[in-house]
Amino acid sequence: MKIICTTQKLKESVTFTERIITRHLTLPILNNIHLKTEKNGLKINSTNLEIGISSWFPCKVEDIGEITVPAKIFSSIIYGLVADKICLELKKNNTLEISAENYKAELKGENAKDFPIIPVLNKNLIIKIKAIDFCKSLNQVIGFVSNSETRPEITGVFITKDKDDSFIKIVGTDSFRLGENKIKIEEEFKDINFSVIVPSKTITEVIRIFSNFNDILNIVIEKNQIYFESNKTEIVSRLIEGTYPDYKKLIPTDFNTKIIISREEFIKLIKLVSVFSGRLSDILLSFNKHKTPQVKVFATDADLGENSSEMAMDMSGADLEIKFNWKYFLDGLAVISSDKICLNFIDNTKPCLIKSDQDNNFVYLVMPIRS
User: Fold this and answer.
1) pTM over 0.70
2) What residue spans define the domains of the chain?
3) What number does CATH give the domain 2-114?
4) Rounded average pLDDT over 168-181
């Protein structure tokens, strides 16, 4: 193998692939990245056996070949080089020569035949969606996914589509709060239906890699795996087995109290009052119509003291007092971009549904603290 490539392209591909690699004692070759010439370019692969990432870019190929090399050392060298071009050449005994202007190194690698095979999906059915839009939707729910392995089915993001729907639903929950996002897809995919649970680590990599791509993202679902591809960069991941909770039953449709309030002001008010919240991070919200509808936010701590603050709002329905974990409450407000938000309540024992006053595609459900 011998190639000559631009440093920038090589750095980009290494950045995409090397982050999933962690120290692996029982299978040391997983500490490596796989370099292989392919179709007048270089393909870089990495895997931790749960996720596989590949990135291809064009370069000058003088000799074909492949090798695996230690990812951390290789990336440290590549990131440190300032030359415009780099030459990679495979020498005897699985040694990779890395050369650039005023620099030369020989890095010992391992035989590429020992590197785990990254699954190749059939790709008979490809769903196409804008990468930026998809990643934005993922980013709004990824923070709500559970970290507890006692319920593995909620440690991932639920991606589902019902037949005849013109949108995909993206859901994340930890049983205390839940976010659901709807993202529109093209009419040609209307007849497709599927439901999968994608590990949160995979979703994190999809967001990291594809968020700034202006291209279409291709998604393939097959058996127990999912595939994402855009601009010659690919992610293949296992899916989480199990049945996702029937979350639709949790989302109420009829409410007794409805509030419209300034998002930014409300966030500032809650953060201010939360300084005195107790060990449950609890705050009390009191919504009252009066002559001018106002919300009063109150927090108390036996050791610190207490405080409260008020602000105006628009309100319809019954007065209400309800307690929340203020961190969970703000998590939902933080991912909504509109100036004003809608808060929807049944009573002080049922979850609050939060959404934008202009966009119904994203909803956030948060459970109250029961006194």
Assistant:
1) yes
2) 2-114, 127-248, 251-366
3) 3.10.150.10
4) 97
